[in-house]
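[09:14] KT: can someone run the structure on this one? pasting the chain below
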Amino acid sequence: MKAQVIAMFGVDVSHWNGKIDWNAVAASGIEFAFAKATEGVHFKDRTWARNRAGMLALGEAFVPGAYCFLRGDADITRQVEHFLEVAGDVSQLMVALDVERRDGVSRQATAEDARKWVAEFKSRTGGHPVLGYYPRWYWRENGQGDLSFFDTLWESHYVSGKGTPKKLYEGVPAAWWRSYGDERVSILQFSCTGKVPGFPEGSCDVNMYQGDRSQLRALALGGISTVVIPDGTPPLSVGSSGLPVSQLQQALNAAGRTPELDMDGDFGPRTEAGVKWLQRKASIAVTGVYGEETEAALRSALQPTRLKKTA
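[09:31] RB: done, structure tokens below
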């Protein structure tokens, strides 16, 4: 049985995108979105209320989100308060903090600013998860500090050209999913020129999450994590690539593999070492190949974690 590729496409929007037809967006296959709510301590995106209502109206078939653009020249606590005042009840919303260069300001936002924002936000929301839109280029530009205070990272790296999310994603290399700042990448913004129905202004930012809606909700809204176990037929080994490999890497991490593996979809020496670690732990043949016997061992190692097998 061949492993099914599980992945979701999403968009992120602001007032620059105009009045969005969210029903058309969802009908095209988009399953999640982040809409800008605030920036700094004064700016409120004029389309936020409409976007929030449109996303939430789609129900369980869609995962809605809100983001705050962090300013380095404004009080952190007040920025959190402003975001919560504007965003409203965030219990049904993914929350992301956008940290990147802002032209025309006296001071750029730093990783320490972001850490303080996340801590303050969590203290006011009972620990609601925060995704960090902290692009790798900005991380390198600002000293390559620790980003593990985020619950996960939302990376930004663009392919060239225009087209549907599926077509554009064909140009994305596995390396773009590699961890940095001691934190994993779970969402990748891979183009700002995607073509998605429902956008009056034409092109939009498009993203991918490697997993399904239940996994994304667990990650971004809190709750029980679902670990997807890749089918062991055909076997996975050095040279294999793609989503089944990234699912295997996630599952090995959940089973206690240290140091944790990058979920980059590339079955290289580190992933092989992780499979051998599991095989030794289970007292089965140490081959470094992930097949049916190793799949059974992985399932046993992950109990009672909630599991999902691809089909």
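[09:33] KT: thanks! The chain is about 30% helix and 20% strand.
[09:34] RB: yep, looked fine to me
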